[in-house]
Each structure stands twice: as C-alpha cells, then as structure tokens.
C-alpha cells in the first residue's frame, strides 16, 4: 500500500478516535475506548472495501454493515460523519433525548437495519442477511464487527455453525480482539489463535492480523472478499483505547467518557476534517422480484377435527404460492409444527436452522431486513430460548412472524419440558407485538394469512391435538377482534377463552345452560391487541368475567382481559395453569390444571 | 475384554432395548428408537464405570448422570430397572398420570437431580455440577448423555468453552451420534470428526468410537476417567433404533412407539432378567462442610442515596461471610451488578461465566443440585437470554437466586437494548418463583438475605441509579409482604409502586396532598407472592388503585395487582412503559414513559 494511502488511513482513523472521544465527552457517557480499538479496522473498510450508497440506503446492492458490538456506536457515528451522512452537530447529539444517535444503534437511523447492543446478536442476524443475499443472487457482502467478549455467547457459535455449513462466503466477521471486556480481561486475551481454532473447526476461513496495521487490514479484507464457499473471520489484535495513554490497554476504562477529553484529543493529534468517499455499489443491480399469484387458502368443513398446527402448515404453503417473498424457517421440528407443508412446495424458500432457536429468530430478523416475509416455527416452549432475540427484534421494529406449536398442558404425555406455558406472556411483553391464538382450523388459516401483512413481531400459537372446526370456511377474523360464541340477555357471566379452552368453555356453557345458568362465551383469538370494546360490553352486561387459558396464570389471556377492563372494575376470575404438570393424557392434563369444562362450570357456580 | 463380559453386556443392552420398546408400547408414545441407539453406551457405563449408590442418592461421592437427551427416558428408566431401583410394573407406568416416570426425566425421581427435555441444557447443567465437584474436592464424575441434534444449540458451546477453559476433567460427555434428528438427518450425520474438531478446538479430549462395540465403549470410558486437566467427549457412532429392522437407522421413526412391539421384542431376543450391579462409590467421602459464621448485614442511613445494586453487592458479600455455601456467578458485568463485592471477599466461591447467560443460569442449577446456594447476577435485560433455562429450573424445582440489575428505563442513556423491561413478566411466569423488587438500600439488603433461604427460582430486581434510603436499618421485609407508606382515612385512591417508582409515587402523593387529594401509597416490594390482603384492603377502602412500574404494561406489577384484586373488582389504572424508549437521562426517561411523579399525579386526577 502506498505511503500516501497509509497516511490517509491513519488520519481517518485518528479522526474516528477523536470524534468518538468528543461524542462520548459531550454525552458524559458511552464507549470511546471500545470504539478506538476498532477505528483502524473500520477506516480501511470504509475507505477501501465497503460498497454503500449513503444517499440511497435502500439500494439493493448495498453492502450491509452490522455493529454486533453495538456499544461501539461512537465509532459508527464518527464513520457516518466522515462519510458525510451526518454533520458534526448531530454527532455531538449522541445519547441525548430525541437524537437518532442512541447509546446503541437502532433503525431510527436509515443506515441501520437492525438494533444491536445485546451482545452476540449481530453475527446471527448477519447470517440471516447473508442468507437473503444468496436467495436474491445479489453480490452484496455482509460485514459484521464483533467484540471479543461476545464470542462467549452460544448464539455466536450457532451462527458459526450455520454460516460455516452453508458456506456463506458473503459473510465476513471482523473481530476486534482488544482483550478487555467490561470488567477485565477476556478468557483468551490476545490469543487470536484460540478463536481461529474455534471458527476454523466450524468451517470458516480465518485470518489473524494486527488490527492497527492498515496494510494487514487491507490485505485481510481483500482476502475475505476473494474467499469462495466459506465465510471469513478476521481476528484482529487491537488495543482498547488505542492512542490515548490514559486508557490504552488499561482495565477499568470500559464504558466511560474519558476523564480529560481535551488532552486525549491533543494526544490523538487534534481534530481533523478528513472525509471518506465510500464506494457506491456497481450500478445495475435490480431488486429481487417476488412472484405474486392469486391467494387460494385451504378450508375445512364444520365439525371436522383438525389440529390448528395442521391448518397453519397448509395456510403457510398456500401463502408461499401467492407470495414469493414468504419464507419459512424451522428449528428441526417442521414435522411437528407442520411447516413441513411449506418445505414440500418451496424447498428453496425453506430454511432448516436445526435445533438453534436463537439463530432461528435471528435469521428471520436478517431476512426481513432485506424485505422477505419470514415465518419461523418451533415448539412454543422452545421460543423461550430466543427470548432476547425476540426482545431485540421488537427494538429493531423487525417484521417477523413466529409460530409456536404444542402450546399448553394439552400436549399431554410429553410433560412440562415440552409445554409452552409462558409464551403468551413473553410475546405480549414484546414491544409492538401481535399475539394470536386460534381455536379451529379455519381461524388458524385466516390468522396465518393475516400475519403476512402485519408489522412488528407477530405470534401465532397453535395446538398439538385435533379440535373441532366451529367456524365456516372463509369467515373473517380481524386482528384485534374477538368472536361472541354464546350470548343471551340473561347471561350471568361471560367466559373468555382462546385456543383449546374455547371448546371447554362452550361445553361448560352448554352444561350451565342446562342448569338454567346462562353464560356468554367469547373467543378471544386476538390476545394482543385485545378487543377492549367487546370485553367492556361483556363486563358491563354481566359484571362477571371468567377467563380460562392453557397457560400460566401470569401475563397471558387473563391478564390481557383484566387490563382491558381494569378501569371499569368488573369481577374477573382467572383459570390458568398454576401447578407443575407431569405426564398424563390431554384430557387429564386439562382437568388437573383446572381449565377443563368441569372446572369452568364450577368456577361460574362458585362466583355466582 | 473377556468373551463372558462381552456376552453379559450384550444381554444387558438387549434388555435395555426390549424394556424401552415395552415401556413406550405400553404408553403408546415416547422415544424407543432414541433409547435403543444409546443402549450399549449406557450398559457399559452402568456395568463397568458408574459409581452410584441407588439406595443412597444423597451420598456425596455418587457419580452424577444427566440425560441431556431427556427424550431417551425409556432407556434411563430401563437402566433403573436393571439396577433394581424400580420394578417392572413401575417401568410400565411410563408416561401415565401420577407416575414418576414422566415423558422426560424430572426430579420426582430421587436419582434425577435436574429435569431435562429441552435440548442442549444437560451439558451446561453438568458443567455446574462439575464445578461443584472441584469446589468440594470430591472425586465424583459427571456423565452427560447428549444427542447429536442438540449439539446445534449454542448453549452446548457455552458449556464446551467453560469446561474446556476451566479444564473440568471430572466432566464426561457421551454423544449418541445416531445421525437422525426428529425430522431427518442431522447436519453432520455420522461425521464424528466434525464434532471432534469442534470440541477439540474448545480444549476437550475427544474420542471417536463405534457406539455399539462394548470393547470400544469400555476403552473410551476408561480413557475418559484417566484423562487429567481436560473434559472428555466420547463421540459414539450409533444407529437409531438399533436392533429392530423396522426402525433401525430409518427416517420417520422418531418419537413413536413401535408399530409391532411384540415382533420387535422377538427380534431383540425376547425379555430377559439381567441385573446390573452398579458399583457404589468408595466409602469414606465426607460431604463438604460449609462454614457458618454470625450474619452481619450492611446498613444504610435514612436519607442517604445509594443504588439498590450496591446494597445487593454488599449484602451478598456479608452473606458470603456468614454462609459458606453461598456462591456467586457473574455474566462479565460484576462491576455493574456489584457482585464484584463478593468476588473481592471470596474469589474461590465466585465464578466468572463471561457473557454466556445460558451457562450462567445452568451453572447455578448445577451448583444447587449439589447443595450450594448460588446467586447469579447480570443485567435484567440479559436474563431473557436464559429464559428457557430459567423455565426448566422451575421444572427442576431448583433453588437458584437470580439478580437482574439495570432494570427499566431508569438506566437512562444506554437505550432500550440495555433496559430490563420484560423481566418481571418472565420471572412471574416461572413455576414456583419468587419476585422481589426493592426500592431502597436497606430493603435490598433484607431481600438479598431473605433469598438465601427461599426454595425455587427467586429473583431480585435492582436499579442502576441511586435512590434515597427510606427505611431504617434492620427493618423486616417478609417475602409476600408490602409496606404502606402513605395512608389516611380520606384516601381517594391508592398508588401501588415498587423500586424506582416508589419514590415517584411518594412525590406524587405529597403533591396531591398539597392539592387536597389524599392518596395512599403501597410499596409492593414482593411482586410474587403478592400481598393480596393489603391490596384488597386498599381496594376496599379507596376503590381506586393506580399501579406504576418501570416495566412493560404486560405481566408485571400492574398485572400482579389486578390479579390479586380481580374477584373484588376495584378500578385499576396501570402506568407502565408502553412505547419504545431511546436515549435520554433517567428523569427524562421516566417522564417520557409516563411513570414519573407528574404522570402519576395526573393519572390520579383523571381517575377521580
């Protein structure tokens, strides 16, 4: 590399360090030292290898850059400034109320597709973006800047396994091995060989370099670009706080503004006005065109007994036909979730993620960032494995569709480890989420189809066993709605149920009616948003609500109902799973949990 | 190995297969084929290497056996029968209501310490048990039977990293590489070398064998026992359904009873009456004695401003002095959670688990299985990473103490990725859990100490910023209690708060009192179990409850209150975080989320 270029890159890197120090100093917090270690790496990437049009973030040929070490946001924002995307005044708004430059990057910025800050997530999401690149046959690259501390997260190795086995050569991880975590040395310190052995074992091309040597960095980035059939990881030995003696390679300097920023800026050679011209991608790349055909959804006859998971699978396959942008992801249980019906029709848009639920959800987030409409399905219980990824998908405003099968004690003999009993609570707390829980096959079809157009994280909860079809084919079930299944002027209470408990509620209502106790029944298939109007009407009319759900008492349907009618103050009695189930038949389980027809009828009688 | 021994081992393995087939046939479900592949491995382990006293499961020198592939429970129960621990009638109660022999093993059985069935958890928990063995200086070994499919879980590699780096030579993983997952071939099929490269890179001793050859198995198990300073993984190539042509090495035979069990039993040579004499551990091992000293808890002066996380750290260190069985685990944030105060005093009982929250919780589960009292601390937000492990800890009836710092929007500038806003909901749904949320330092101390004696999963939520001390040193805060902080006969509403919002509620109450609107204030520091009596009294007296929490609207304090008073039907207005925060100061965050003093006062006025 010519001396002139080396000088320019050193100047650019120095400016990135200075600006990282300045931004954190102005904010009084942030991570300047974690930014300074990676400044040379990113300077060379931006100046020599990145292909990105900052004026057109939606250009389909743009490279994708993910800061998996999201706390190095001062560096990212300093890069934006050097590239002319933001000005100095905005840089100095870092971490202030209303600023787009948050403590950790979020998609409030047009150049950020996914939020990071929970470590170990950027690389798995990058795997999803790289999967999209292969699907779209577009030549963009996915660059992921990782910290060394975050390599302890298992999700990193789920990503390493998937990318390695799939040979995602368009994925390049750059690890800033600065040897210091938040509270002290990392496990492997500067032993980049330890990381190389691990990534190598997972099938990656590995390159170990000095992360402050522009020549070595340039060579490594080029080598990564030239590598075929394998993802590349560049393991760059760096010094945290590089360039400022007060903090360089010192413990106790994590996540703090520098004590004497003016002195540090002097030490770094003062402010500069270096611009970096990021290469735009080659012209002529056309966005991938998704095929669109008329929708023809499956339907089921009234009275037929069909599992909602089966209807989901059939609906997903039908959606696949109509919408070329629908993709499905599986956690090695597609025969159980019935996502296998989609695989059969569209193997090229079906992704087997194996038993790696974090990568399952992360891949969905990555795919949606490129405009695909992912449905990711596994057992409801095992979605808890990906809770942090779901949480962060909410922060990313990602539009992903999650499907959890085998909900509740109704699965029967398999026992508590396989029962999704916490999923409604988990998905309800997710920012901007939608939570749907069908009770029959036609409703499951309608809700599966409705999810295709939902924004944010949406969730469909399905049931293992067969349930009778109670809705005619083609009926509409708007998100946020509910269905009144039993109602009479003399109703003394209203039972609110969803999924399997709808059928128990109907049986209980019939039994109570025979004992001259008329009660209403509402099918609350949309748990979030919830049909407040219908619930308030029921509460006003009967004054007594009995909620019944195949889920824990906390955070599920019952709480959604209480919340909707709370300011009105009706009596609300909740039936839910409170004990620890063992093995038993589905019927025994519902009875033991106190959520079957008999328990409901008894609860009504006790209440009245 | 002499011919006679080989014959015996073959007979024992055949019986294990026959009994697995019989148990599943009787139940009409279960995983006989996944049991049959590992029968030879377990036959040799039980006959030749395991040291276990079935009559005395609490013998401290017993080896520990964990079926990480919990679905192979028919094999485990067949082993119990062969060892004389259960009889044939009980074996055939498999998966029936009331039986201890659940679909997946749980501690309802005296020989099972931790529940499995959610894949990828047994090995990380085994790491915790092995850590305990080192701490106790006892010579027991931890044997973990893994499936090959579950090696896709990132948690396996968190475990591999911790055990490899710590050199846990008392940990031996046996992987049943039967090449078939639930829905088809695994990623690596019979390529045991692929797994060996991975484990080897993480520092493990690896042995690849034919998993149906007793001689090879015996050699490998002995080799593992003789290995020093490294954990061992035995990668055993096996055939799923081995021994029965109908299912052997065939796809589509996962998780089902065999179609023709009688024919299968014939093919396996019929029923046998083979007993296995499991060697008891050497006598003379004495249980580790935990030191006990008088308790001297820290205390804070009224009016002092101290973060509850700081008080937690000081209390934990004090507990460490008094109770020799208290251990602390950290997710590489001990300087933030303040668990570092414990590390300083008791480095030998402090475990740095690095940024691997699944392994963090799993290690706690493993340690408590050996009688230790673990406190595992990280940011509240990042406990979501371990949700499935927390869920399964509930199923295991494990007594672990989790501490989540940096709760809520009150952390300020770091932004949403670092804010614990879903933790109360997550922990409330956990079976048998306790959820505590102190508002001042003395209360934090008391609750930290109270957790030491709690059974099940308990959770302490701490706050980043300083809050004023409002309770005198030494005051008592029973779990399940609450504190009435403002109350007058004319109260027109009661504000229910916890943690940071207590201080906002007090300020709001003072402001309202100045406007002649007297309101009560309850500090609901025990969110689960909740003080139903106090809430009902408040609801009865004022008829209006305003809940305010630094947590999402769903599943937290507000829902706990609604649930407690639901059958009474007061008006409940909930203030909670509903939007997506960005960066801002703590005060701005509370205001923006509508949970500060002004928002509370306005809500009261609006309600009245």
UniProtKB/TrEMBL annotation, chains A, B:
It comes from Nonomuraea zeae. It holds the Pfam family Transketolase_N. This is Transketolase. Residues 306-469 form the Transketolase-like pyrimidine-binding domain. Homodimer. Keywords: Calcium, Magnesium, Metal-binding, Thiamine pyrophosphate, Transferase. Its EC number is 2.2.1.1. InterPro entries: THDP-binding, Transketo_C/PFOR_II, Transketolase-like, Transketolase-like_Pyr-bd, Transketolase_BS, Transketolase_C, Transketolase_N. Belongs to the transketolase family. Its cofactor is Mg(2+); thiamine diphosphate; Ca(2+); Mn(2+). SMART domains: Transket_pyr. Signal peptide: none annotated. NCBIfam families: PRK05899.2-5 (NF004559).
